[in-house]
Amino acid sequence: MSHSIALIDVNNFYVSCERVFNPKLLGKPVVVLSNNDGCAVARSNEAKQHIPMGAPWFKFQQIANEQQIVALSSNYALYADMSNRVMRILNQFSPDQEVYSIDECFLDLSGFQHLDLLQYGQQIRHRVGQWTGLPVSVGIGASKTLAKLANHCAKKRAEFDGVCDFNQLSPEQLNHLLADLDVGEVWGVGRKLAVKLKTQGIHSVLDLKQANAETLRRQYSVVMEKTVRELNGISCLELEYAISDKKQILSSRSLVFR
């Protein structure tokens, strides 16, 4: 049986949480700041064109004033509570759940393939939206790595309406999508590794998918080999059912940006 792994991600999580309790912020450019208002750790879509992620706030206060950007101090107790609500709702859609971070969750939907998983994904979006007020995107693929990329497409491409199931695409359609994605979008690749891969002619996700897994293992690591296999629909990464300490929300400047 083929795998169907879903990755559910709350859009602009910290900002979305603030908007639930202050609807006047809807449609306005909003930035959430880290401890002591040091830097921008979350931005609404309206603010992203003006404020870089992680930007030291004192350097951008003039721009924020000019663009009428609302800056909020972070409220980690609120974010943790909203995260718990979302994860409890998602657990109703599949008991096989990995809480990956405060705003991301994997669900194994392999036993639900008698259903239309695109519709199931929309049900997830609507349930979370109705019960919490938070917008989510849903990506589905044959592996965790593909689910991550599908979520990226669900979030960035309007034609998917918030839910993208790679398993319902033809191989040609999927490859066309992957050819348009920069290799740096692959889960675990990152900026520095992407630069190295591009020197080898691996520029897109499709390039990495079609690369020789064993060669990349020798050049980099077994992790890279698994990434290539995951891009080819071979599930190498199992769901982790207990959240690790490093994935817990942190009240520090090293907080993962949302």
From TrEMBL:
A Gene Ontology term for the protein's cellular component: cytosol
InterPro entries from the UniProt entry: DNA/RNA_pol_sf, DNA_polymerase-Y, PolY_HhH_motif, Rev_trsase/Diguanyl_cyclase, UmuC
CDD domains in alphabetical order: PolY_Pol_V_umuC
Keywords in alphabetical order: Nucleotidyltransferase, Transferase
EC number in record: 2.7.7.7
Superkingdom assignment: Bacteria
Annotated PROSITE patterns: UMUC
Biological processes, Gene Ontology terms: DNA repair; error-prone translesion synthesis
Listed SUPFAM superfamilies: DNA/RNA polymerases
Pfam families membership: IMS, IMS_HHH
Class of this enzyme: transferase
GO molecular function, one term: DNA-directed DNA polymerase activity
Boundaries of every UmuC domain copy: 5-190
Transferase found in the keyword field: yes
Protein family according to the UniProt entry: Belongs to the DNA polymerase type-Y family.
Name of protein: DNA polymerase IV
Taxon lineage: Bacteria, Pseudomonadati, Pseudomonadota, Gammaproteobacteria, Thiotrichales
Gene name tied to this protein: dinB_1
